[in-house]
């Protein structure tokens, strides 16, 4: 079919939008009967009927008409609510229309093939679950508007081009006149001046137009980026309908609540999540929510509630389904687990956490026997698969008699956020604004004090403080910069801390994307965004920063919860036995494993024989000296990844420069040997396994 | 067809000239090879043009906190964020000043190599390329043969081998595990 002659081109878009409105409206009406949802549905169904007739989609028009017929008697304030049978019929017609529209949206295999709604309905356990989540038309309209706007800005440029052409001719004329010496000097000068003036104003107009186009294009780019993300609310209708259908089939009354509808994320994520959560909400109705009498007897409201919450935590998204039903049947789970020998012998009775863990982490969930008793095996399988696919995680909480919660947490690839731009050590980086609690201006003295003590007083208590430049320049020298001018106080689940930045550079909306492959980075960077000039900008990970900050504050004794990898061993190269032993004792008491080498040669040999996290080397040694040791290791790609620190009694600037040129990451002078300073460098630099 | 008039001759020349732009550049017409003569870490090298998908000067590189020393950072190419590796560092030379040129390599995942000097573009007869194995000390198999030029021999950098080295380096540092 020729694209330009496709009569259904626009109808498809409109019909999909109207069907979505009908699907949501029917569920609204079901939950909150009243004249408003009825009026809305009548309006939408009527529009659909009209549009369908225009493009000769009789079936859709007929269904829409039947839909209207049911609703008409219930229009107006004093009309009674719909009977259950009428409600069911509305839902059936809703599905029938949706099926027609879905068929129409697929490329027609044969022109004579007619839509059979009854057939479409037969395979209706999941009529429109597989559908692609699309960006709303309104967003597309806005993008098109923005492109149109940019286009109109081209007109002045077109005019400008002909002006330039004209001025070019004038200039040539003038040159001719000058060449042949015709005309008087005054007139020629006047002409030249006129030309210069005209060129000047043409140039200004060009500059204005180009500036304007640049701004418009930036707007277009931002909107187009936003289109890659769709609102989470687009999957709620599907979930809500699943709850409604399941409740109807079970003869239960269940109310559906949605929270966090405004969040946007990549359409490729929402598809699988919605698929997995469909099972979760259905199971919550079927197995979680008790029959009405049972609920009333237990002192609960007769109507059960299922809440689906969506939340964004840093670069993770969290979908949560909460029901107020009976919770998981832990006794049955325990029995089955025991029968199948899944519990370690002699480990005592398992607690509920480990039982729920068994459901989640395989083993018993796929077995039919357990599926029947636990009642949630299949749903759990589905959601676990989604979690694996999205590299996320599922958590289950259950309180017998009070309900259960299923939580799916997964990292977001593309993430729209508002960021606070900060500058540190010449680099601009972005921090998600929602974790920023405050920004504090620091005087040079305050900044120096904070950097030395590693703490800053905020809100009456001392918060750990880390200059951001230190975290950003892991493994290299921090360039000279004006110095810290502000502290940003950050709130994370791990606690409150502050980072020192040179200056604040405003806030901006951005789309964060994962770091590319082949770009392994420190955990303080979670993702990158692309700025208006097309250059990457680092997006900081609050959790990674927190780990970095708190690690610096509790040397050796890292928080048990943190999953930070253990540091690799450190190789100490020094020809002096005393220094070797001193350094070893310092490092070992800080929790590092240490190997020793008495010369540069031995050091190189050992360095190649084992993976180290850091080299700590003296400079003045017989044979290969420290500079050479560092240079040789830098020249070997396998060893170059291991940072090197030079320790020496040489204190001159020239030696420091030479050390830096050789590729040393830090330089510590023995005379002013400061254990804390050395450990600080090591903590910052050491490679972890 | 014989062209008689001067106008016809001019027309013919113009058409030939225009057509020459429409024809794809010949990278390898059987007996010659196209190379880029580059300088990295103060030494001359050559790169096969067919192993590159673009050369860009002075593109801003956003530094990345990383323990991989050769990884200079990331740069933007038409909306794609691409890791940039220092060619000199990969070849085992001490890193001097920041390289000016970025070479986008062919293959996936996207990767750019930074080098200091772009000397010139060469088309040399295949016979001038010596495929004998070069002294491999320090270069980790990144060099494959050399090209004989009037101003001296240039080792040829094997981009796929460099890519393999980068994969190995990046793989050595597993992406930090996600918290939680």
TrEMBL record, chain A:
<feature type="modified residue" description="Phosphohistidine">
    <location>
        <position position="46"/>
    </location>
</feature>
<protein>
    <recommendedName>
        <fullName>histidine kinase</fullName>
        <ecNumber>2.7.13.3</ecNumber>
    </recommendedName>
</protein>
<keyword id="KW-0418">Kinase</keyword>
<feature type="domain" description="HPt">
    <location>
        <begin position="1"/>
        <end position="108"/>
    </location>
</feature>
<dbReference type="Pfam" id="PF01627">
    <property type="entry name" value="Hpt"/>
</dbReference>
<feature type="compositionally biased region" description="Basic and acidic residues">
    <location>
        <begin position="111"/>
        <end position="133"/>
    </location>
</feature>
<dbReference type="InterPro" id="IPR001789">
    <property type="entry name" value="Sig_transdc_resp-reg_receiver"/>
</dbReference>
<feature type="domain" description="Response regulatory">
    <location>
        <begin position="569"/>
        <end position="685"/>
    </location>
</feature>
<dbReference type="InterPro" id="IPR011006">
    <property type="entry name" value="CheY-like_superfamily"/>
</dbReference>
<feature type="modified residue" description="4-aspartylphosphate">
    <location>
        <position position="618"/>
    </location>
</feature>
<dbReference type="Pfam" id="PF02518">
    <property type="entry name" value="HATPase_c"/>
</dbReference>
<feature type="domain" description="Histidine kinase">
    <location>
        <begin position="208"/>
        <end position="414"/>
    </location>
</feature>
<dbReference type="InterPro" id="IPR051315">
    <property type="entry name" value="Bact_Chemotaxis_CheA"/>
</dbReference>
<dbReference type="GO" id="GO:0016301">
    <property type="term" value="F:kinase activity"/>
</dbReference>
<dbReference type="InterPro" id="IPR036890">
    <property type="entry name" value="HATPase_C_sf"/>
</dbReference>
<dbReference type="Pfam" id="PF01584">
    <property type="entry name" value="CheW"/>
</dbReference>
<dbReference type="InterPro" id="IPR036061">
    <property type="entry name" value="CheW-like_dom_sf"/>
</dbReference>
<dbReference type="Pfam" id="PF00072">
    <property type="entry name" value="Response_reg"/>
</dbReference>
<dbReference type="InterPro" id="IPR002545">
    <property type="entry name" value="CheW-lke_dom"/>
</dbReference>
<dbReference type="InterPro" id="IPR008207">
    <property type="entry name" value="Sig_transdc_His_kin_Hpt_dom"/>
</dbReference>
<dbReference type="InterPro" id="IPR036641">
    <property type="entry name" value="HPT_dom_sf"/>
</dbReference>
<dbReference type="InterPro" id="IPR003594">
    <property type="entry name" value="HATPase_dom"/>
</dbReference>
UniProtKB/TrEMBL annotation, chain B:
<feature type="domain" description="CheW-like">
    <location>
        <begin position="32"/>
        <end position="171"/>
    </location>
</feature>
<dbReference type="InterPro" id="IPR036061">
    <property type="entry name" value="CheW-like_dom_sf"/>
</dbReference>
<protein>
    <recommendedName>
        <fullName>CheW-like domain-containing protein</fullName>
    </recommendedName>
</protein>
<dbReference type="Pfam" id="PF01584">
    <property type="entry name" value="CheW"/>
</dbReference>
<dbReference type="InterPro" id="IPR002545">
    <property type="entry name" value="CheW-lke_dom"/>
</dbReference>
């Amino acid at each position: 079919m020729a694209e330009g002659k496709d009569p259904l081109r626009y109808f498809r878009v409109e019909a999909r939008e109207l069907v979505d409105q009908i699907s949501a409206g029917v569920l609204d009406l079901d939950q909150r009967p009243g004249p408003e949802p009825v009026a809305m549905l009548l309006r939408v169904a009527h529009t659909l009927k009209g549009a369908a007739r225009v493009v000769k989609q009789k079936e859709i028009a007929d269904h829409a008409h039947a839909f209207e017929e049911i609703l008409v008697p219930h229009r107006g304030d004093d009309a009674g609510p719909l009977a259950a049978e009428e409600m069911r019929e509305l839902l059936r017609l809703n599905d029938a229309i949706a099926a027609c529209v879905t068929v129409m949206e697929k490329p027609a295999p044969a022109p004579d093939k007619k839509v059979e709604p009854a057939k479409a309905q037969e395979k209706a356990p999941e009529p429109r679950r597989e559908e692609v989540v699309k960006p709303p038309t309104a967003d597309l309209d806005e993008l098109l508007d923005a492109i149109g706007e940019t286009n109109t800005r081209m007109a002045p440029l077109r005019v400008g081009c002909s002006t330039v052409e004209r001025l070019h001719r004038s200039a040539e004329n003038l040159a001719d006149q000058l060449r042949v010496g015709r005309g008087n000097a005054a007139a020629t000068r006047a002409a030249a001046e006129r030309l210069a003036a005209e060129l000047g104003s043409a140039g200004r107009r060009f500059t204005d137009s180009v500036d304007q186009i640049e701004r418009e294009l930036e707007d277009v780019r931002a909107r187009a980026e936003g289109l890659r993300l769709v609102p989470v609310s687009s999957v709620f209708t599907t979930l809500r309908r699943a709850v409604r259908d399941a409740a109807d089939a079970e003869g239960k009354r269940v109310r559906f609540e949605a929270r966090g509808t405004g969040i946007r994320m990549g359409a490729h994520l929402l598809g699988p999540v919605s698929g997995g959560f469909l099972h979760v909400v259905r199971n919550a109705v079927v197995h979680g929510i008790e029959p009405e009498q049972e609920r009333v007897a237990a002192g609960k409201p007769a109507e059960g509630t299922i809440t689906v919450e969506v939340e964004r935590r840093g670069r993770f998204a969290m979908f949560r389904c909460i029901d107020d039903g009976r919770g998981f049947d832990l006794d049955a789970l325990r029995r089955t687990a025991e029968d199948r020998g899944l519990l370690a012998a002699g480990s005592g009775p398992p607690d509920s956490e480990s039982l729920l863990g068994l459901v989640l982490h395989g083993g018993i969930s796929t077995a039919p026997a357990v599926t029947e008793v636990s009642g949630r095996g299949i749903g759990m399988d589905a959601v676990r698969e989604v979690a694996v696919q999205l590299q996320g995680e599922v958590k289950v909480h259950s309180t017998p008699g009070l309900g259960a919660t299923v939580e799916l947490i997964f990292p977001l690839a593309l993430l729209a956020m508002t960021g606070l731009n900060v500058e540190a050590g010449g680099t601009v980086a972005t921090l998600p604004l929602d974790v920023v609690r405050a920004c504090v201006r620091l005087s040079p003295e305050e900044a120096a004090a904070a950097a030395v003590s590693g703490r800053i007083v905020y809100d009456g208590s001392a918060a750990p403080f880390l200059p951001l430049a230190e975290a950003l320049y892991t493994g290299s020298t921090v360039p000279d910069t004006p110095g810290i001018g502000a502290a940003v106080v950050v709130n994370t689940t791990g606690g409150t801390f502050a980072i020192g930045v040179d200056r604040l550079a405003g806030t901006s909306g951005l789309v964060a994307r994962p770091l590319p492959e082949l770009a392994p980075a420190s955990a303080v960077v979670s993702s990158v965004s692309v700025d208006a000039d097309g250059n990457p900008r680092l997006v900081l990970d609050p959790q990674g920063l927190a780990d970095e900050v708190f690690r610096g504050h509790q040397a050796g004794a890292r928080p048990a919860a943190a999953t930070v990898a253990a540091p690799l061993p450190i190789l100490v190269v020094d020809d002096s036995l005393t220094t070797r032993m001193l350094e070893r004792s310092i490092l070992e008491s800080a929790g590092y494993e240490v190997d020793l080498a008495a010369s540069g040669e031995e050091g190189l040999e050992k360095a190649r024989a084992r993976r180290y996290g850091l080299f700590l080397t003296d400079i003045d040694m017989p044979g290969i000296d420290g500079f050479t040791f560092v240079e040789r290791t830098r020249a070997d790609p396998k060893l170059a990844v291991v940072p090197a620190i030079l320790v020496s009694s040489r204190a001159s600037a020239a030696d420091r420069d030479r050390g830096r040129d050789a590729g040393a990451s830090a330089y510590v002078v023995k005379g002013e040997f400061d254990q804390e300073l050395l450990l600080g460098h090591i903590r910052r630099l050491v490679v972890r396994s | 067809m014989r062209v008689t008039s001067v106008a016809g001759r001019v027309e013919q020349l113009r058409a030939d000239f225009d057509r020459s732009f429409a024809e794809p550049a010949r990278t390898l017409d059987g007996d010659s090879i196209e190379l880029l003569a580059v300088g990295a870490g103060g030494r001359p090298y050559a790169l096969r043009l067919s192993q590159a998908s673009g050369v860009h000067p002075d593109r801003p590189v956003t530094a990345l906190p990383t323990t991989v020393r050769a990884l200079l950072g990331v740069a933007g190419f038409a909306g794609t964020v691409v890791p940039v590796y220092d060619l000199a560092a990969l070849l085992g030379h001490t890193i001097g000043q920041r390289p000016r040129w970025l070479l986008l390599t062919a293959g996936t995942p996207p990767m750019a190599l930074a080098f200091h000097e772009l000397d010139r573009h060469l088309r040399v007869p295949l016979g001038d390329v010596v495929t004998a194995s070069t002294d491999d000390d320090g270069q980790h198999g990144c060099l494959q043969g050399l090209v004989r030029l009037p101003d001296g021999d240039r080792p040829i950098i094997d981009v796929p081998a460099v890519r393999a080295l980068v994969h190995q380096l990046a793989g050595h540092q597993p992406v930090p595990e996600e918290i939680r």
